[in-house]
Amino acid sequence: MPISRNAGTLCGLAAILLWSLLALFTVYTGKIPPFQLTAMTFAVAFCLALAKWIIHRENIIPFLILPPALWVLGVGGLFGYHFFYFMALKSAPAAEAGLIAYLWPLLIVIFSALLPGEKLRWFHIAGALLSLFGASLLITKGKSLDLDPAYMTGYLAAFSCAFIWSGYSVLSRYFASVSTDVIGTFCGVTAILAALCHFAFEQTQFPATIGEWLAVLALGVGPVGGAFFLWDMGVKHGDIQGLGVLSYLAPLLSTLILVALGAAVFSWSLVAGCLLITSGAVIGSLHLLKAVFRQQA
User: Fold this and answer.
1) With left for phi above 0 and alpha for psi between -120 and 50, is residue 142 left, alpha or beta?
2) Are 112 and 104 in contact (CB under 8 A)?
3) Which residue has the higher pLDDT, 86 or 288?
4) Between 242 and 170, residue with greater pLDDT
5) Which end of the chain is more exposed for a tag (fewer CB within 10 A), N or C?
6) How many Å apart are CA 35 and CA 224, to the nearest integer?
7) What share of the chain is helix, strand, coil (3-state, %, to 5)?
């Protein structure tokens, strides 16, 4: 059944809200190394898709026989982003690497102007830049950035993250006719590749408690599972520029959740970051707000 633009946008927003839970659930996974955690959570996502196919007795062949370009886009987007993100965190300070990697919402706003039927407006850029500045305050905690050339490898990996995810999101629009079920296939391949990286670079550390197992399961169902299916529907059928700006809500909500649970400290940079991100989201979504008010009128 065709998905309307508004429904697609809501799906993308739901993905953003799920991503805001990523840090919280990750905290409760204990000492599981990143590639192992990626393999486990994407395996959960694949199993959910497989269960859906079996229950509905669907023919899974169309989800496996795909054009080479789609394979490159899907696996490159899901696995490529996580691979370079972990490499960035390993090779550069977390604050700088995280901020560079989080250029992807701004890049989505810019790159999406190249899509048929899309037009880049001033409030898209203004909202994205304002939200980026707010996100920088949250990520750096108000401290100045020190881009040391010694960490250039990590910075380049972080830039790769930003370009890979923004490119994946924008180029997905060209495969709008392809079922979102293919994300299940990409999750399965990503789980296998992450497992190979785990065995090559890490020591296995299984969850030590039931709580840690539940956190892994929650990640696979939500932020590292269901969110990617929802995001696929969002970028294929929704307002991709609006979603680019709204993506900066993820670090905002994530920080607020951690503060509420005592896992992060309240500070002036948090307040300023919240205000900037919220203001940027409002400005960047002016067309969405106008559409809502117009429908209510």
Assistant:
1) left
2) no
3) 86
4) 170
5) N
6) 13
7) 75, 0, 25
